[in-house]
Amino acid sequence: MSGVLVASCGGAHQPTAATQGHAIAPATVTTVARGVAPTVAAPAGSALACQYGDPCFSPQQFRVAYGIQRLLDSGIDGRGETVTVVSPVPRPSELPTDVRRDLESFDRTFGLPAARIEVVTTLGGSTSPWQADGEEVGDFEILHAVAPAATLRVVLIPSSWDQNPANATADMVAVMRLAVSHTDVASISWGIGEHYFTKAQVSELHSILRAAEADHVTVVGSSGDGGVYPTPRGWGGQIKEVSLPTADPLVLGVGGTALTADPKTGAYISEAVWPGSGGGFSHLFARPAYQDGVPGVTTRRGVPDVAGDASAVGALALDFIEYGAASLQSYSGTSGSAPLWGGLVALADQYAHHDLGFINPAIYNIARSSSYHKAFHDITTGGSGYLATAGWDPVTGWGTPNAPVLIPLLARFVSRPRS
């Protein structure tokens, strides 16, 4: 396939159970393999401090907090699954790094297996495909911590995407078509306010998501970091709204929390709303059937559906190489909580032995069952334009995952697709 490069940073690659998806431009595949001998520099039983002194968690501690470690210990590690993210080609001023080096350093530091990376350059060009900014590196390292055996795939978009709304919305539609092709999960840490899109673009985007649903691809989207006012990116005044693609009812919307866990073991203590967590109600989409009867939901699509850690204080420690030296840094925003859920879905797909695809109805069925408080941490403290309340709310949705309970329930509540 033209415009696709693959790097196996040591270790054996498991074949993916990828869906067929939709056709993209023909391309060749280049594979680069290196051996990496992981060494653990930060054991799970140590308290960590990231750059600037912010307390943060090792992957092992982070997994314990959300119960993910129990799944990994039982062999559910994402093998056979592909998770796709999207990211702009970095500008020189953004001090781009080589994503392969960052992942290798991350794996060495925390004793993780080597990652397999795929880069799709169809839209972004292939001049420097391995160069990445913090967004791409952060998405990959969070995904790799949660689902260490999954293939990590990124679709690059032009660095000029944010010059104006027309560029941004056109690139969003184009990249979504590629992001949901040849993958099992698409984790989108990017959103643009609904009012920037034309009717035709909204329709096309929804059509792409319908096709993803038919192909059993799960699409996860971040709810944004501007609260009820998505970041205007210099394009005009702020409008109280939610963002696409997350506002589309076919996307699992993910809000943000601030996680408190034991600084040494990672044992879960509590969570509150991360103050920037986006949320609210769509101007474009009516309330979907799976939200019918949910207290707090109006006649419009409510966002988000679920949530995860998005705070720089108490975040997963990420490894970035800057000026030739590696450093541990925290990572804030719903760009962190979306890949957490992208990785969880990869684990759920493996557990179920098939791609779960569109899981929103299952999420809501579980949340309305007697298993709700076992499968989720209900967030009732804090706010971000809206207040967190018991049950669903338009800032953290149903809450954050307790993975060893939620994953088996998802596999049970989602019907196996017909062959």
The proportion of residues forming helix, as a percent range, comes to 25-40%
- Strand tally is 23
* CATH architecture grouping: 3-Layer(aba) Sandwich
By CATH, the superfamily comes out as Peptidase S8/S53 domain
The quaternary state of the protein chains shown equals single chain
* The level-1 CATH class: Alpha Beta
CATH topology: Rossmann fold
**What is the count of DSSP helices, taking H or I runs of 4+ residues?**
10
Number of domains as seen in the coordinates: 1
Walk me through the structure.
By secondary structure, the protein is α/β, with parallel strands linked by helices. The protein has a single domain (4-11, 67-413), classed as Peptidase S8/S53 domain (Rossmann fold, 3-Layer(aba) Sandwich), CATH 3.40.50. It has helices at 59-65, 68-73, 99-110, 134-146, 165-179, 199-214, 334-352, 360-367, 372-375, 403-413, and strands at 4-8, 29-33, 48-49, 55-57, 82-88, 97-98, 116-120, 131-132, 151-157, 185-188, 192-193, 218-222, 243-244, 252-261, 268-273, 280-286, 300-303, 306-309, 315-316, 318-322, 325-329, 376-377, 400-401. A hairpin with a 2-residue loop joins strand 20 (318-322) and strand 21. It is globular. The two termini are 26 Å apart. Residues 10-43 have low confidence and may be disordered.
